[in-house]
Amino acid sequence: MNPLISAASVIAAGLAVGLASIGPGVGQGTAAGQAVEGIARQPEAEGKIRAQVDQGSQIKMIQVKEMMQDNDFKNSKSKDKGSKSRSQSMDE
């Protein structure tokens, strides 16, 4: 492969991952900021607000974990298919 294309693809992948991480970071920061504002306005509701924020972040973490497991599962299936075809080709 052309070295220029390889370098450009690595740079593009890095930019894509970097830019893709900005959105969730801004979203989580906004949620945390709003929670702090809510606690400042109504200190007696701190427990409920904190529980909602914790629950929301736990749901996000579970979703990310499931996505990673699905991706690992898909990758392992494709590797299994590749290894089966290699072993079958060796038998022939």
Q: How would you summarize the topology of this molecule?
A:
Blueprint: H1 3-41, H2 46-91
Helix pairs in contact: 1-2
Domain V-ATPase proteolipid subunit C-like: 11-47
Region (Disordered): 67-92
Main location: membrane
- Beta content: under 5%
Task: Name the shape in a single word.
Answer: elongated
What is the mean predicted local confidence, pLDDT? 81
Helix fraction?
over 70%
What is the CATH fold-level name? F1FO ATP Synthase
Helix count, DSSP H or I runs of 4 or more residues: 2
For the record, the CATH architecture stands as: Up-down Bundle
Radius of gyration: 22 Å
As for the number of domains, it is 1
- CATH first level: Mainly Alpha
Order of helices and strands: HH
Main β-sheet description: none
Structural class, from secondary structure content? mainly alpha
Task: Please report the total strand number as a whole number.
Answer: 0
Low-confidence stretches: none
User: N- to C-terminal separation?
Assistant: 31 Å
Kindly describe this structure:
F-type ATPases have 2 components, CF(1) - the catalytic core - and CF(0) - the membrane proton channel. CF(1) has five subunits: alpha(3), beta(3), gamma(1), delta(1), epsilon(1). CF(0) has three main subunits: a, b and c. Belongs to the ATPase C chain family. By secondary structure, the chain is mostly helical. The chain has one domain (3-91): F1FO ATP Synthase (Up-down Bundle). 92% of the residues lie in helices and 0% in strands. The protein contains two helices and no strands. The model has no long low-confidence stretch (mean pLDDT 81).
